[in-house]
Amino acid sequence: MRSHSESVTADRMTSGARWLLDTPDGYGVVTRCLHWLMAALLVLQFSSAAVHFFGEDSALDEMLWPKHRANGFVLFCLTFVRGAWGLANLRSRPAHLPSWIGRVAVLGQLAMYGLMLLVPVLALLRAYGNGRGFSLLGLGIVPATGEEVTTLRALGNDFHGPLGWCLSLLIVGHVSMALVHHFLLRDATLRRMIGMKS
Ligand code: HEM
């Protein structure tokens, strides 16, 4: 049999883990931190892309554009961390609505994950294809070969930007639906991601 102090310690450990992990009633602190950190980095990423598109060589572009590549690579890495954490918590997360709205939400989330991987992959392939490579903090991520691989360069040129804008539209849809849940359906969907009690 467990002593009193052993069971108190075990209870504390479980409640500590509960705070970190997702439960059917809400998301844990790790999921919430990853969600809002990536949201902030995506705002920076799309701001840099939009300013570059509308105001190339403006002072704001000169400030934001140099951060686009590094920030995009960090987002790429965080997508793996978030995906792995999501899979580990899949069975204990809050359930989606049991209607077509829930199924559309799952499809939308899968599409966002797919694009969050594909968009930076296309940029990295182009970095290889144009021979210039890509490094971050002195770490060579994509080797600079100095040789052009026309197909890879063209793939990146043709699809990185357009698919990036598709991702931005999906995110606008995702944010809009979170607001619909909160203000029209008045359920706990948004509160769960903020960490407020349902
Ligand atoms: C989730 C990550 C990323 C997103 C959402 C994203 C989004 C975008 C968007 C929307 C554009 C179009 C800008 C325009 O129309 O002028 C763009 C351009 C560009 N991105 Fe990214 N990007 C990401 C990651 C990266 C990474 C990792 C790199 C480099 C390693 C990179 C390099 C570039 C370059 C050089 C351009 C300018 C050429 C072009 O329009 O294709 N991006 N990005």
List keywords for this structure.
7 helices; two-stranded antiparallel sheet; mainly alpha; binds protoporphyrin IX containing FE; elongated
Please provide a written account of the structure:
With about 200 residues, the chain is mainly alpha-helical. It is about 70% helix and about 5% strand. The protein has 7 helices and 2 strands; from the N terminus they run αααααββαα. The protein has helices at about 5-20, 30-55, 60-65, 70-90, 100-130, 150-185, 190-195, and strands at about 135, 140. A two-stranded antiparallel sheet has the order 1-2. α2 (about 30-55) packs antiparallel against α4, α4 (about 70-90) crosses α5 and α5 packs antiparallel against α6 (about 150-185). The radius of gyration is 21 Å and the shape is elongated. The model has no long low-confidence stretch (mean pLDDT about 90).
What is the structure about, briefly put?
With 198 residues, the chain is mainly alpha-helical. It is built from 7 helices and 2 strands.
SSE arrangement:
Elements: H1 4-20, H2 29-54, H3 59-64, H4 68-88, H5 100-129, E1 134-136, E2 139-142, H6 150-185, H7 189-194
Antiparallel strand pairs: 1-2
The chain binds protoporphyrin IX containing FE.
The site of protoporphyrin IX containing FE has 23 residues, from helix 2, helix 4, helix 5 and helix 6.
